[in-house]
Amino acid sequence: MAYLLIAFVSFVFQFLVPKAHSYGHAHGCRSYCGNLTVDYPFALQPGCGHQGYRDLLYCINNVLMLHISSGSYRVLDIDYAYRSLTLDEPHMSTCTSIMLGKRGNGFVVERWREPYLSPMTDNVFMLLHCKAESPLFQGFSGKHLPCRNVAGMGCDDYYGCPVWSLIGPQRAGSVYGSGPPKCCAIAYEAIKDVNLTRLGCQGYSSAYNLAPLRLAGPDEWSYGIRVKYSVQGNETFCKACEATGGSCGYDVNDFSSTLCMCGSWNSTSNCDSVPSASHRRTWSFMDALTGMHP
User: Fold this and answer.
1) Where in the cell is it found (predicted)?
2) Are residues 36 and 70 in the same domain?
């Protein structure tokens, strides 16, 4: 009997303890992925962070990935001061590579997530090889949307990339009388969803400009998707929570309920409040073995 108990305890410490400690926090909120810090309003564990960003970020082999309805994107940077994320995806065209065949994700956010996440106004989407029947040229929401520059970036400059010499761009007139252009630059706000299938496009590129002056050419643009994020309503609550040593989160059974996670218990105010029985965590033998007992 003693041998079985020793074997069981050995199994627990060998296989379960490392997993319990790998999260780095008693309440399971991770704060990093590779070299990126994952802080509020984002999180990697259910119940942590802002409910508007639930099921959004995943850490896969130390690579931070963002997943929305249009697909998965690698997170290159999170700028908490300017509230922005920089994303990349392998099937997006750049100045050195044109990716066609509708393999690119584009950018489509779930409707309920739209108040929290959208591309920046200085981000240009350049839609490639779109059909003449595309809403871009036949009318979108009852009106014609001309292709235009965004933040000083557009297709006329993009055509200057050496890779276009292999394709041979066609620069059509303003009324597209000679057929649609091979590239149409547009702002995200003009169409809301960059859905390649719905827009009848074969590919896309996305670039943003952080410099105060216009860059010399498309080879100096930053290619990727720069996304702004916002927090709706509970910043005061979270500041009070963090000031008392807690982490801001939400009830996984009621996404509208904000919680302050205080290690072994959750509070509806902050960690200086007295925990009620309903918010205390039930400690078990497994918690004691993994060193998580208060």
Assistant:
1) Membrane
2) no
Residue 200 forms part of a structural domain: yes
Sheet architecture: strand order including 266-267:
247-251, 254-261, 266-267
Let me know the angle formed at the C-alpha of 276 by 274 and 279, rounded to the nearest 5 degrees: 115
pLDDT of 100 higher than 70: yes
Q: In the predicted model, what is the mean pLDDT of residues 233-237?
A: 77
In the chain, which residue ranges form alpha helices assigned H by DSSP? 2-11, 17-21, 135-138, 155-158, 188-191, 196-199, 235-243, 285-289
Taking alpha carbons only, the member of 40, 44, 79, 47 closest to residue 237 is 40
Mean pLDDT across the chain: 79
Which tokens sit at 212? 């105060």
pLDDT tens readout for residues 3-41: 444 444 444 434 443 333 333 333 446 679 999 999 999
Q: Which two tokens stand for residue 252?
A: 């996984």
In a domain, 10, yes or no: yes
pLDDT > 80? residue 67: yes
Query: Which of 211, 229, 247 is the endpoint of a domain?
Result: 229
Q: Which domain range does residue 37 map to?
A: 2-50+232-289
